[in-house]
């Protein structure tokens, strides 16, 4: 076997949905070895007690979070924690030389005053935060490859930005006309027991939430501003839909050239994403379904133009726990380590 050595990785927040998804992906990853699992209320329990069906895959104890210990054992650390915790741990991990991938919102914002305004959390880690790179490989591949600290995008921003990017980057639409109507399954809210996510509350029902206030709005706007080259505001409305996994984001925007037709846009999107193994542009007249993406790291994009209104309609479907969270983090890890971007990531889903 020669000198082959797997890279030691740790997962903080291993008991949560992001954490367990990371365990599943990293166990199948040929270049890494999970050597540490961390948590809070789950500390002291074995991973297999929490997830008996995975006990044959990983079954060692979840440990308390001690950055010194983690940095001693791990070269790479995934933080899958509620907002406001990664920013307390990442500075020490970075100072010790670890590569850090944060799945929360803590390292997504260039401007920490925007973060504090929308998240209500004060920060004192500005020195570390300036190093962070936004972990959307399709837009920031080269910067991610050089990064020590990556702030992985939110699930709604991932679906919405992949839908909008070609339009904004190529100046095809009036940016302020963009309306994002997105629907998420309940796993998007995490595993830590919220009443609106109970089956009895969410089943047989569909409702918007966070209307004009959702914290993914400034995250989407930050990247849209990058793409357009000037300040952009968008209208973003999320909905909770009675299913467990998946996001469908439907984006409407006014075309600058009303002569563009659906097939023109399909050609433009196919060219834009030609080097992106995790984006699939659908053929003419095909609209994506969340179940196609479920269990995969893929984002499916469908396109339509309404000649009556002059609007383009872009539909994007992802699995919120994979391309929207853990899978995207593994995709970023692959780039940071100089590995093939597809390593350890599923392209075949749960459904036929
Ligand atoms: N769910 C989704 O679709 C997406 C989520 N995200 C983001 O990813 C992050 C994780 O989300 P998700 O997996 O859904 O969350 P969960 O609620 O499922 O899990 C949260 C995890 O955080 C741990 N934790 C909480 N407090 C502490 C603490 N003080 N110290 C150590 N560990 C702690 C919990 O551990 P324990 O059980 O031991 O208490 C648990 O493992 C969040 O920031 C979320 O916003 C991003 C994209 C998509
Ligand atoms: C259905 C549901 O509740 N979804 C979550 C989105 C989770 C997420 O990605 O949030 P972060 O930006 O904190 O990572 C929400 O709307 O709060």
UniProtKB/TrEMBL annotation:
Gene symbol of the encoding locus: argC
Annotated GO MF terms: N-acetyl-gamma-glutamyl-phosphate reductase activity; NAD binding; NADP+ binding
Protein name per its UniProtKB record: N-acetyl-gamma-glutamyl-phosphate reductase
PROSITE patterns reported in the protein's UniProt record: ARGC
Enzyme active site: 155
Catalytic activity: N-acetyl-L-glutamate 5-semialdehyde + phosphate + NADP(+) = N-acetyl-L-glutamyl 5-phosphate + NADPH + H(+)
InterPro entries on file: AGPR, AGPR_AS, AGPR_dimerisation_dom, AGPR_type-1, NAD(P)-bd_dom_sf, Semialdehyde_DH_NAD-bd
Function: Catalyzes the NADPH-dependent reduction of N-acetyl-5-glutamyl phosphate to yield N-acetyl-L-glutamate 5-semialdehyde.
UniProt keyword annotations, A-Z: Amino-acid biosynthesis, Arginine biosynthesis, Cytoplasm, NADP, Oxidoreductase
Compartments it resides in: Cytoplasm
Family to which the UniProt record says this protein belongs: Belongs to the NAGSA dehydrogenase family. Type 1 subfamily.
The Semialdehyde dehydrogenase NAD-binding domain, residue ranges: 8-147
Known pathway: Amino-acid biosynthesis; L-arginine biosynthesis; N(2)-acetyl-L-ornithine from L-glutamate: step 3/4
């Amino acid at each position: 076997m020669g000198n082959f050595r797997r890279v030691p990785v740790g997962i903080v927040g291993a008991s949560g949905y992001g954490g367990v998804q990371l365990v599943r992906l990293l166990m199948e990853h040929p270049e890494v070895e999970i050597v540490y699992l961390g948590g809070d209320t789950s500390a002291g329990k074995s991973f297999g007690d929490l997830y008996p069906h995975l006990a044959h895959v990983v079954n060692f104890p979840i440990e308390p979070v001690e950055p010194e210990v983690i940095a001693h054992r791990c070269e790479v650390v995934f933080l899958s924690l509620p907002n406001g915790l990664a920013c307390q741990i990442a500075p020490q991990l970075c100072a010790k030389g670890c590569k850090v991938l944060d799945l929360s919102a803590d390292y997504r914002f260039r401007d920490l005053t925007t973060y504090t305004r929308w998240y209500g959390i004060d920060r004192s880690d500005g020195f570390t935060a300036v190093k962070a790179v936004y972990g959307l490989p399709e837009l920031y591949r080269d910067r991610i490859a050089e990064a020590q600290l990556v702030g992985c995008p939110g699930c709604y921003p991932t679906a919405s930005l992949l839908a909008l990017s070609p339009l904004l980057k190529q100046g095809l639409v009036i940016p302020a006309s963009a309306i994002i109507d997105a629907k998420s399954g309940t796993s998007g809210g995490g595993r830590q027991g919220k009443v609106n996510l109970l089956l009895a509350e969410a089943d047989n029902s569909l409702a918007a939430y966070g209307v004009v206030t959702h914290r993914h709005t400034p995250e989407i706007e930050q990247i849209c501003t990058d793409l357009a080259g000037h300040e952009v505001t968008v209208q973003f409305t999320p909905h909770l839909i009675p299913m467990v996994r998946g996001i469908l984001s439907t984006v409407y925007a006014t075309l600058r050239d009303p002569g563009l037709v659906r097939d023109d846009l399909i050609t433009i999107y196919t060219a834009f994403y030609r080097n992106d193994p995790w984006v699939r542009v659908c053929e003419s007249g095909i609209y994506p379904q969340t179940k196609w993406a479920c269990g995969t790291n893929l984002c499916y994009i469908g396109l339509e133009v309404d000649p009556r209104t002059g609007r383009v309609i872009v539909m994007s479907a992802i699995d919120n726990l994979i391309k929207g969270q853990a899978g995207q983090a593994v995709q970023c890890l692959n780039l940071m380590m100089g590995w093939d971007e597809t390593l350890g990531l599923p392209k075949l889903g749960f459904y036929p």
